[in-house]
Amino acid sequence: RVVILRLGHRPERDKRITTHVGLTARALGAEGMLLASNDKGIKNAIEDVADRWGGEFYVKNDVSWKAEIEKWKEGGGKVCHLSMYGINLPDATEDIKSCEKLMIVVGAEKVPTEIYDMADWNVAVGNQPHSEVAAVALTMDRIAQDEPLRQEFPDAELTIIPTEYGKRVIDNKIKE
Ligand code: SAM
């Protein structure tokens, strides 16, 4: 069970990347994303994709990051903060993999320093600067128990039939 906490989203400039953090997390098996800023457009855009493509991914808009982390930890969950300054992912994978309830925290600009102390792990996806989307994707792939790219998304309106050339999409509404 994985949930993403997105910090520092600036509605005027981070819309696309925050949407991609959410969509990537969903595609790799997270149950939802908590957005520590107020941007209902992000919630609507991601939940709209989830409605059409299946599964039950949610976005909780405008949360207090501190309250969410505290609540998560009280409920027995662990927190993995992704930061290029942290322990390198290959050195933490086994430990994180054994955790059944994981919150993955990603920032935008500078994250509050308190996060580093509240996290159970501060993990770098390589100690070089890159992107929160890539950091989420690689982490979720490495800590997954089953192949994350083979999961099913129930009750989808649209389903892709993988094909070598071209595009094949089934519209399940028409099929019924
Ligand atoms: N300059 C910011 C700082 O010093 O925290 C980092 C900005 S970076 C574009 C935005 C987010 O991407 C970070 O908060 C972190 O969650 C994630 N990120 C970027 N590179 C990363 C890396 N190598 N490992 C883990 N997370 C990374």
Automatic annotation (TrEMBL):
How would you classify this enzyme at the top EC level? transferase
Would the keyword Endoplasmic reticulum turn up in this protein's UniProt record? no
Give an example GO molecular function.
Answer: tRNA (cytidine(56)-2'-O)-methyltransferase activity
Q: Which Enzyme Commission number(s) are on file for it?
A: 2.1.1.206
Report the principal subcellular site: cytoplasm
Q: Which GO terms describe its cellular component?
A: cytoplasm
Instruction: Give one GO biological process term.
Output: tRNA nucleoside ribose methylation
* Protein location: Cytoplasm
The record's listing under Pfam families reads: Trm56 (PF01994)
Query: Per its UniProt record, what InterPro entries does this chain match?
Result: Alpha/beta_knot_MTases, tRNA_m1G_MTases_N, tRNA_mtfrase_aTrm56
Could you say which residues form the signal peptide?
none
Q: How does it assemble?
A: Homodimer.
State the similarity comment.
Answer: Belongs to the aTrm56 family.
Entry protein name: tRNA (cytidine(56)-2'-O)-methyltransferase
Q: What is the lineage of its organism?
A: Archaea, Methanobacteriati, Methanobacteriota, Stenosarchaea group, Methanomicrobia
